[in-house]
Model the fold of this input.
Amino acid sequence: MKKPRNDKALRVGDLDPHEAREVLHRLWKRGGKLEEAIAEEMEALLRSVDSEAVADRVYSNLDLLTREDLWDRSGRTSHGYNHPAEVSWEMVEETIRPYWQEVERYWKVGMKEEALRCCLGILVGLYDFQMESDSTFKEWAEDDPREAFCWIRGEWEREFKDKTRTSRLDAELSKRCPKWV
Done:
C-alpha cells in the first residue's frame, strides 16, 4: 500500500545531482520492471535530440560572450601575454566543446541519428551566430565561428567515417548554412 503524499514530502528536485544519480543507480540495481522502465525513460530522453534546440542553445551561449569577458581574459598576465585573438578562440571552443562531447557520447552508445542531429545543431548554431548576432564579442572573434564550424565538421568526418550520414549532414548544411558549404 502506497503512503499518501503530503506537501512536505521529499521530492526528486530536493536532491542534489549526486544524490539523484545515486537514487537512480539504486533503482537500476533492483532490476526487473523498474530497470526496464528506467532504461525506456533514458532512451526516450536521449532520443529526443532536436537539432533546432541545440542550434538555439549554441547560438545563445555564444551570444552571451562579451568583449569585456574577452578583455578580462586577455592582455598581460603573470605568465606572459594572452592575445585577444587566441583568447576569443578559446572562449568559442569552451562554449561548443560540451556540445561536441554530446555528439561523441551519442555515437559511442550507438545513437547515430541523435549524434547527427546534435552535430547539425552545433553547426547551425555557429552559422546563425555569425550571420545574425549583434554581439560585441564578434568584433574580436571575426573568424572564430567559421573556424569552429570547420573544426566540428572535420571532427565529424574524421571520427565517425559514416559516408551516408556525412552526406545527409552536408545536404542539411547546404540548406541551412548556404554561405559556408
